[in-house]
Design brief:
7 helices, about 35% helix, EC 3.1.1.31, hydrolase, alpha/beta
């Protein structure tokens, strides 16, 4: 894994936005589009706000969600709600192709299958150009939660968590989808994550983050 260390979370967000912008330009030039998925979190939202200032052909960029809480539309618990707040008033709101996870569907299992199919239709092979990931202080990433059966899913690209986590059931990308991404970008900031970061870098299979492939990954952090 490529590791880039910065002095602050703000610098991590800035450098990540620059890196994504460069990758997007390269992919659009080579194949005409760029597809990536974003996780929630304070530093990622700062990154997205900075990315929104870049001069990119946004209509050729497809943005997916890595995971989402099962909550009503517009609820503050939803990553999508936070994402829209970040982008409100920017050019991205009208030009970027945003594909929300349908957690308000009456049949959530079907919604998982439909989202996976949609990713396949857009990408042609379910291989996203970039997946952004964060990590919790317990070693979870996306909504792959320690001890949850969702971590054992091998035959679905999108799946539901078996149990609520922090009060909400989740819908998430699974290892089969994440690990085939062309690029994975880790943004990990905050002192409370230092121990788990070491375990992740050592590929500790006891934490969900430790089972993400590292050969196509870059880590941006303020912790090392």
């Amino acid at each position: 894994m490529q590791i880039n260390v910065y002095s602050s979370a703000e610098e991590v967000a800035h450098e990540a936005a620059q890196w994504i912008s460069s990758l997007a330009k390269s992919k659009i030039e080579s194949k005409g589009s760029f597809s990536f998925a974003i996780s929630g979190g304070r530093t990622p939202w700062e990154m997205l706000a900075k990315l929104a200032q870049e001069n990119l052909p946004w209509e050729k960029i497809n943005l997916f969600q890595v995971d989402e809480r099962i909550a009503p539309e517009g609820h503050e618990d939803r990553n999508l709600t936070q994402l829209f707040q970040v982008l409100q008033g920017t050019r991205l709101m009208t030009r970027l192709n945003i594909f929300p996870i349908h957690v308000i569907s009456e049949n959530l299992q079907e919604a998982c299958e439909e989202y996976a199919q949609h990713i396949e239709q857009i990408t042609g092979n379910s291989k996203l150009d970039l997946i952004h990931l964060g990590m919790g202080a317990d070693g979870h990433t996306a909504s792959l939660i320690p001890g949850d059966k969702v971590c054992d899913v091998e035959n679905q690209m999108i799946a539901l968590t078996d149990q609520p986590y922090q009060g909400r059931q989740r819908m998430t990308m699974t290892y089969p989808l994440i690990n085939q991404a062309e690029n994975i970008l880790w943004l990990i900031t905050g002192e409370e994550k230092k121990e788990m970061l070491v375990r992740m870098l050592n590929k500790d299979p006891e934490i969900p983050a430790g089972k993400i492939k590292q050969d196509q990954a870059i880590l941006m952090t303020d912790l090392l």
